[in-house]
Each structure stands twice: as C-alpha cells, then as structure tokens.
What does this fold into?
Amino acid sequence: MKWSTPILSSLIVLAAQTLPAVAEPAVDEVVQRYLEARGGAEKWRAVRSLWSTGVYSTFSDHERYEMARRVGDIYRLDFKVLDGEAVRARDSEGPWWRHPLLQPEVARLEEGPYKALVERESYFGPLLLDAASKGISVKLAGPAEIEGIAVLELVVGLPGGAEERWFLDAETFLEVAIDSQVNDYTQSAEPMRQRAFFDDFRDVSGLVIPFKVDYEFGHRLESMTIEEIELNRELSDEHFSPPPAEPAGE
It folds into this structure.
C-alpha cells in the first residue's frame, strides 16, 4: 500500500508524539551528581584544611611538592622548576608568587594572567560546590566524548569572565578533563588552551579526590601526583604569607 505525502507526514507526527521523550539531565542534577560522586557537599563543607605532598613533574624533571589549602581560599604550593624554588600562594591579603624563571624574587600579584591562575588554583574544595555564591555560572552543553569516554560537557564561567569546559564521565560523574586558557610566558606571550586530565580517584575519609592530574598546554606537559594527603591539619596564617622582606644592605 502506498501512502500519500499528507498521510505519511501525519503518521510521522503522531509517532513522534507517542514515543517517550529521552530527557537530558538538567544542569542542577548534573552538578548534584558530581558533588555526590566527590563525596557529598556536606562532607566537603565540614573540612577545614587539606594538606598534600607528592611529585610535581615539569620540564622533564620530577621533584617533590607540598600543597596546603585552608577554608577561605587560603592556599600555598611549593615546588621546584629546574632546581629553583617556586611558590604560588594566596593569603588573606591576596595572591603572591616566586618563580625562578619568571619572578625570582617574592612578589604580590596585583593583576594579569598569573594572578588569575593563583586565584583559580586557590578555590577550596570542588569548584562547583556552592558555585553561585562564588560568582560561578554552570551551563550544560550536552553529551560529548573524550578519548573514547562518554562524557557530559559543562560550560563553567568564572568571576572576571574566564570560561572553562568541563567533561564529566557520563557514568561516574567524576572529572575526565577540563579545558581552560592559560598563559605561559616561557613559551609564548599569547594565551593557549590547557587540558587537564584527572585520574586515580581515591576515597580519603569519605571525600573522593583525584591523585593524578596531567596538564597539556602548548608544547609543555606537567603532572601532579599525590603520595600523601591529610585533612584538617593545623595550618597557621604565617605558613601562607610571604617571607618578611630582608633588610636593605648598608
């Protein structure tokens, strides 16, 4: 039997109306599932500090690092770059740093991309926890794929206008990768895309934390591997502040 075009069109419309709709999860649901996968919002809100140590790999060197975080986005990362001491930190007065190639002396970060880098790193706990109160927006871009893994893609807007693309595992809701823009003046004056890959998630007193993060940006590869982690260690204000200036010579 041959169907006329009007009848066939009517049947297609009727079929579309009677088929069950495949609902895409709302962004709030995705964020909730993500926070649950990371251990739950209430458990994260109960943590006062987080200290870790492990291996920081950059310029093909593998050196020890120490990282300390405290509520209020207080932060310090000590590591080495080509045998030189480096620090990225944020105390109650704001970000400061030292870098053997870019900033050999301790200095406050008043503006620019490295200030934004330290502010982004210093967020305490999962970034999407209480996102709205931090001035962070989250939108659902839809399903995608990263290296053969089915993911949900989120567009995360940061205070100041920067934007990140998050890729959450469609089954576990844990981070697979995050795309962002960074500046690395050891390579180029122009900003470049950075992709961070997350792996080796482990349970730490009920919190789920990635113990391995690999970074790709420009021609550079970096990684951080946690070996030891401790929650709620007592961390003084002085630990996060820059060292006092040395007195001027005679």
